[in-house]
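Cytochrome c domain-containing protein
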Amino acid sequence: MTSPHSLLHRLPVALLFLALATLGSTAVRAESGPDGMPGEKTFRIICQSCHLESLDLAAAGPDGDSALAAPPMDWLSTAIRMRQNNDEAEFVGHVVSYLRLPGLERSLLPGDVIARHGVMPPISEYGPDLTYDDLTAVASWIYGHYNYKKLLPQLQKHLQSRQGSSQ
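Tokens:
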């Protein structure tokens, strides 16, 4: 049996762990989406309703994404990173800004992609409670999730095959 005296000695340690746990959850909350969802979970619940996580461009062929509601996220993120010189801050800033107020003039995608899929509606239509921090968490997760160096040559080859098939 534990004596009351030993419980008193453990109380400061327990309070310290409680304080650290509270600080930790506050830090995570700042990078989370609605109800504490991290960027990946928000992506999977909201973004994936239109965007596939990935599509094998070589297997899909030049028009393989034409039946999709939106471009697959792996090559969409690669195309944006390509236009932003693979700069993370520029990528995240552009994605957050575009999600809040999308438009043809703000898109970084080739015209044929916009013609095929249209311009994305504002994210508020899908996630009205998403905050700036939520969108930043999603954009940061997307930036870190995909292997740009591996995907870039595949995307460039895919875009070239599209140009060749449209001529």
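Residues 2-31 have pLDDT under 50 and may be disordered.
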